[in-house]
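Dear V.,

Thank you for sending over the compound details. I've combined the ligand you provided, fe (ii) ion, with the protein sequence from our construct and run the structure prediction for the complex. I'm sharing the raw inputs here so there's no ambiguity about protonation or stereochemistry in the SMILES, which I know was a concern on your side last time.
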Amino acid sequence: MLSKTPHALETFEATNRAWEAPVAAFLTALCGDKERHARFLNTLSQMEHVGSRKIMMSQAKGELPQDTLKHLAEETRHAFFFKRAAEKLAGRTLDYGTEATLGGNAARMYMGRLDAFIADELGSRAPSETAYLYMSLIVELRAIWFYRTYQAALTAAKHPLSLKSVLAEEELHLEEMLARLDAIDPALDAHIILFSAYENARFPVLWGEIAGGN
Ligand SMILES: [Fe+2]
Ligand SMILES: [Fe+2]
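Below is the predicted structure of the protein with fe (ii) ion bound, written out as structure tokens.
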């Protein structure tokens, strides 16, 4: 079960190889631009917040098992972590409006479309937790890929921000999502390929708005 984690992540990394250099270059430049860096951190906070909100919404009708509640608490903490870092850097409070984010609307759209695609593909006959698990799984793959690259840029720039605890939690979430899906979905591999392909097609749109945002 857990052996699927490196496999899923390795496949994702291989598919996204061409994005590593441009994303790393953007992040390195960002570390030297306080104002934009603050807005970028605030965008990550917004995405973590949207993620945590989606977990909450997905549980609206059911019970909230302890592992899901833990996941929710951790994603909410990530939103807080990035908000605090963003405001510290900006030296002021930041809302999630377009002036205070980079590509904030695109970020909301990215999460919304991914969620809708997964729910549509799974259909109404799938158990309600399946869509939540896949949405989380695909977002975790991107988050781990991205936060690793971001941490490397922060370290190279000698920036004091550390993503270590966030990254460790995202890695655990990925393992948990894979383990839970492996137990309930015989089409796990095919679904990961399908949903990753959709995410990989949406990411350039999101990234274009974030990197081009002014
Ligand atoms: Fe997170
Ligand atoms: Fe997570």
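A first observation: The helical segments are 4-15, 17-30, 34-58, 66-90, 104-122, 128-156, 164-184, 188-212.

Warm regards,
I. M.
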